[in-house]
């Protein structure tokens, strides 16, 4: 990122940090590198993020939030809960697969950062299962699904689909047949919720 005369914002710092992580990887990326990319001193970066760990956590949160925000629209839609559930699961799989496939260097960097941010990851997973709980709860309320407890069902669905969203399975997502396996799993999960 070339230095500019734009006001330095947290968002600009996070964008520059992503570029630095992409270029150097998380092991070698420093706050000085981020500052250099922005054309400012590292002290200026520290005015926005008090520590390197805080900066790394903010970048990780931003990355995780992109997925949550993309999926949140399915909880707000006023349409068939079964279709919303199918679309939510497909959206999650697609988001994770694109992150891994479109920018493998950045994906690898984030996998390192995510291991440093356990609490943040836990909050992210809670948010995702919360979205699922809303969708499944709507299905129970309309009689589409028969599960007794939407939160328990949501956790079970999320866990069952883990091989299509857990980054440790990323290599499997590009293999021939992955889409067919995903569709078969979703069909099984939906049938299970209906009965």
UniProtKB/TrEMBL annotation:
Residue ranges flagged as DNA-binding region: 30-49
Sequence ranges assigned to domain HTH tetR-type in this UniProt record: 7-67
PROSITE patterns, A to Z: HTH_TETR_1, HTH_TETR_2
Sections of the chain in a coiled coil: none
An example Gene Ontology molecular-function term: DNA-binding transcription factor activity
Signal peptide: none
Record keywords, A-Z: DNA-binding, Transcription, Transcription regulation
Gene3D superfamilies on file: Tetracycline Repressor, domain 2 (1.10.357.10)
Protein name: TetR/AcrR family transcriptional regulator
Organism expressing this protein natively: Streptomyces sp. R08
């Amino acid at each position: 990122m070339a230095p500019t005369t734009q006001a330095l914002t947290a968002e600009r710092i996070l964008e520059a940090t992503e570029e630095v992580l992409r270029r150097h990887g998380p092991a070698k990326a420093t706050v000085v590198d981020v500052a250099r990319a922005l054309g400012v001193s590292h002290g200026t970066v520290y005015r926005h993020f008090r520590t390197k760990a805080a900066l790394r956590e903010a970048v990780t949160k931003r990355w995780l939030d992109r997925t949550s925000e993309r999926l949140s629209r399915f909880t707000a839609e006023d349409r068939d809960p079964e279709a919303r559930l199918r679309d939510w699961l497909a959206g999650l799989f697609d988001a994770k697969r694109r992150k891994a496939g479109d920018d493998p260097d950045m994906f690898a960097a984030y996998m390192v950062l995510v291991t440093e941010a356990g609490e943040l990851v836990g909050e992210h997973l809670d948010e995702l299962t919360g979205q699922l709980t809303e969708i499944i709860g709507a299905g129970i309320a309309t009689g589409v699904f028969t599960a007794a407890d939407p939160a328990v069902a949501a956790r079970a669905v999320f866990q069952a689909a883990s091989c299509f969203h857990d980054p440790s399975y990323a290599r499997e997502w590009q293999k021939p047949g992955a889409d067919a396996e995903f569709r078969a799993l979703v069909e099984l999960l939906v049938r299970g919720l209906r009965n």
